[in-house]
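Sequence and fold
=================
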Amino acid sequence: MGDTMDHSAHTEQHRQHREQHHGHAGHAPAATWSTAAQATLHCLTGCAIGEVLGMVVGTALGWGNPATTLLAIVLAFFFGYSLTLRGALRAGVGLAAAVRVALAADTLSIAVMELIDNGVILVWPSAMDATLGEPLFWVSLAASLAIAFVVTTPVNKWTIGRGRGHAVVHRYHH
């Protein structure tokens, strides 16, 4: 009888351990809000780097709003993919597979984040015309990224729950 209880307790501990590690050892990651928020924060980091760099470069070069916004979006995708690519390569994944992982993990997340982020800036009065030296530029950018985070987190939860999106990245974590 004691062995049965010990075995049941051990099995339950093993199940909990797998869930805590969100998909290690080939299991699908848990589609928790925490996992989704972490995936979204990862995406937000790349998007924010790209957005700010794109705005700084576009403004410094004297480009108009459409060209500067396009540059910021391209750089958001570039940096978002780059962060995932770096992690996959560090995990020992080959370059071609790492590129596929980054594309699978981040495309929808970055696209939603950029759509919301740029949409908020577009409808925020005077935000599109604010310069880097104005508080409105930074306040509207921070608010738009925060709103994009809130909207993108459920998208990431949904994709992770289906074994897609950032669930693909978790297969390579050690």
Observations:
- The mean pLDDT is 83.
- The radius of gyration is 20 Å.
- DSSP finds six helices and no strands in the chain.
- The chain has one domain: 36-170.
